[in-house]
């Protein structure tokens, strides 16, 4: 993969659930010849959460990112953003408090899909114990209902609160190695995915090919799966490659392999975000 087109708009630092200072990411990006680096820490949420930026730290995160953007402007293009959860009536990429930050871009993701018996929001891509408790207490143990709710929310995200980039499209499969909870070949699963892809195709969003499940050894798979990427190509949905880096060394993790997979599927270009707007570059 040509260094001239390497970008990453999805990384997490010590401000949220990642490791390392923002400047360490900039230094790593320079060594790896990235054209653009986008900071996308998990946006604060209005309830207890151990992996988002704590609200009191958000000003420091933004100030640090914008200082680095200016300090390194002659060496690398830096964009300041957030990964914003879509939780109906709680937060979204178009919430007033998010728009007020005047970010360069947003990554929109669905993490939370239900509530435990005590009212606590839970995520299907957290620890397996959290997933199983959530399935039991929110959906009567029915994984299909949970997965369909996940894609229902993803469809609502792209249709009602579109971010610039859609994060890890099918991260609901993170704990599903070996088809433990559901099969991606099931007609109901394919139907849910296709409906969401149709909505995505009608939106202004860019879909990321997220290598984090492989780079960090969690799901062992790309987000989204290759058959979903074929559906994206058919619908002419714009794509980019991100690593969802949680350490500076992961900034270009599995990029060459992901690019090769995209080319095999039939993709010929990537879509990037720059200071001047979007640009399309050849996939080489």
Structure commentary:
The protein has one domain (3-282): Metal-dependent hydrolases (TIM Barrel, Alpha-Beta Barrel). The protein is built from nine helices and eleven strands. The protein has helices at residues 22-31, 58-71, 96-99, 128-139, 143-160, 187-201, 212-215, 226-235, 255-265, and strands spanning 7-8, 36-42, 77-85, 105-109, 114-115, 121-122, 165-166, 206-210, 239-242, 269-274, 277-282. The strands form three sheets. A seven-stranded parallel β-sheet has the order 1-2-3-4-7-8-9. Helix 6 (187-201) links the parallel strand 7 and strand 8. It starts with 6 loop residues before the first strand and ends with a strand.
Features:
284 residues, alpha/beta, 18% strand
Layout of secondary structure:
Layout: E1 7-8, H1 22-31, E2 36-42, H2 58-71, E3 77-85, H3 96-99, E4 105-109, E5 114-115, E6 121-122, H4 128-139, H5 143-160, E7 165-166, H6 187-201, E8 206-210, H7 212-215, H8 226-235, E9 239-242, H9 255-265, E10 269-274, E11 277-282
Parallel strand pairs: 1-2, 2-3, 3-4, 4-7, 7-8, 8-9
Antiparallel strand pairs: 5-6, 10-11
Helix pairs in contact: 5-6, 6-8
What's the quick description here?
This protein is α/β, with parallel strands linked by helices and 284 residues long. The chain has helices spanning 22-31, 58-71, 96-99, 128-139, 143-160, 187-201, 212-215, 226-235, 255-265; strands at residues 7-8, 36-42, 77-85, 105-109, 114-115, 121-122, 165-166, 206-210, 239-242, 269-274, 277-282.
